[in-house]
């Protein structure tokens, strides 16, 4: 079947209806490009995903893409922050106190701190900072597009590059698909979906488009199909970053003794704090020490998220109880006080998180473009997925959307949809602008946990103070 039997050829097909794919669609429509379609494998839009931090560079990119999208997302994020703060404090405050996310050592001394209020970020970097649930971000963006151009229940399984277009093959009704690289719940570490599987009892459909934007996430099917049977094959799927997250975001009925000790020595009135043993860095050069994020909940409840370097072999086929004991033992070996092992062992096994973090390295040594192939181009996590340690995944994806939206509109404005030379040139130019910066972002992502306040401030100034209009000017020059 060929797009409901119509034989229609779209100017642009976007694979993936996450925030980056939707932002790309909005960017194109803002530039008068309406012959486009967004497809996604999900059977329906539902509340999934974690909370996303949109930082100044991401908000600047979104504002450049569309003022209305920016205003709606910002309002939703600020409302979410206010509601969460009221739940945490237990009451509404006329003058909310300023909140900080502090990284502290095991003595409770501040190593570095990050203000969390919108105004601080706005005055320093020219734009603020918000937190927003991933689903709410997706919904805000999706609602700015006509419903008929966003199709769910279409999982891309193959494509073929023809002379004048790309044909994308999809299946519908596939209930077995699982993405092992993006889920937070406990799952088998050996369960990796093969993009060449042949599901039965699924409806097949084909779409044709002049250009295809792969915004289908870190487990991108398009990326795997481009890279397979080439010298990039080893980079087709995400590589293990070496780090894993273990956590339980809400543990109830914690004793007053534990609550008070953690409050008095570590929280000290804040809602969230990151702890690490900074003495390990001074004693052993370049060591990656584990760090523990503690989250204060209402009454006698806490949550935690534990990031640690770990071999995947130590996680395979482990029960939740074994994972909890493993985390507790790692903390003990890193000289964390016994109270933290006690807290870990209180984890609710039904709500336990165990997530290895994966990465698509931006610094792949290759002389040819790695983010595009003829009429296809990768954006967001499909191009450069990485762990969330610097909260730059969605933000860098929005920067991609702003740039690739400009690139594609330039192609179409110049009537160059049948000019492969111009298409390849602009896709290559997009990569030349974005990839070197992504190399720096990924390096910062993997190393920032050991930074001083001065190092963090220097990084923040370099990333958040950038002007999106200047980036676009450099691209179009």
From TrEMBL:
Per its UniProt entry, which superkingdom is the organism in? Bacteria
All copies of the FAD-binding domain together span 10-44, 371-443
- Show the GO MF annotations: FAD binding; monooxygenase activity
Keywords for the protein's UniProt record, in alphabetical order: Monooxygenase, Oxidoreductase
Signal peptide span = none
Q: What is this protein called?
A: 2-polyprenyl-6-methoxyphenol hydroxylase-like oxidoreductase
Which organism is this protein's natural source?
Hyella patelloides LEGE 07179
Taxonomic lineage is: Bacteria, Bacillati, Cyanobacteriota, Cyanophyceae, Pleurocapsales
